[in-house]
Design goal:
Blueprint: H1 4-16, H2 21-24, E1 27-31, H3 34-43, H4 47-51, E2 53-55, H5 59-63, E3 72-77, E4 91-99, E5 111-118, H6 120-135
Parallel strand pairs: 1-2, 1-3
Antiparallel strand pairs: 3-5, 4-5
Helix pairs in contact: 1-3
């Protein structure tokens, strides 16, 4: 897909070159959709980078860990979350690191945003949301 390599290169660069090691170790990479997550896991060069990619969309939801642990989030998204977003309002700050610039790409304009310093409520909201989404697929 057009834009996948660009998205991956920029996200991986933001993660590996843009973050200190003390931040990398506790950063989750969250993609809004499975196409973004698929691009990062397929084209990513570093195992540590690829292992941190999760998404609540499509099959990636089922591959997400059962428990989340993070302090920061590198978000791959179409638009910046609203200031009152239930989850992202629980971070100290954020920086738009880059975006996809290929106008022919379906990912054109997708943003790579680094959210810093989650509070304990963000962690709990993330865990509950993931659990709720995954539980839809468990048969009783």
């Amino acid at each position: 897909m057009l834009g996948w390599k660009e998205l991956t290169r920029k996200a991986e660069h933001a993660f590996y070159m843009g973050l200190p090691d003390t931040a990398k170790c506790c950063t989750m990479i969250y993609c809004d959709n499975y196409g973004q997550a698929g691009a990062l896991t397929f084209y990513g060069e570093h195992a540590d980078f690829k292992s941190r990619v999760i998404s609540g969309n499509g099959s990636f939801l089922l591959w997400a860990p059962d428990s989340l642990s993070f302090k920061h989030v590198l978000l791959i998204t179409e638009k910046i979350p609203a200031a009152d977003n239930k989850f992202f309002r629980h971070f100290e700050s954020y920086t738009v690191m880059d975006s996809v610039t290929d106008p022919l790409s379906r990912q054109f304009g997708n943003k790579i945003i680094f959210f810093r310093n989650a509070d304990s409520e963000a962690l709990e909201i993330g865990r509950q949301s993931l659990s709720k989404e995954k539980n839809q697929f468990h048969r009783k």
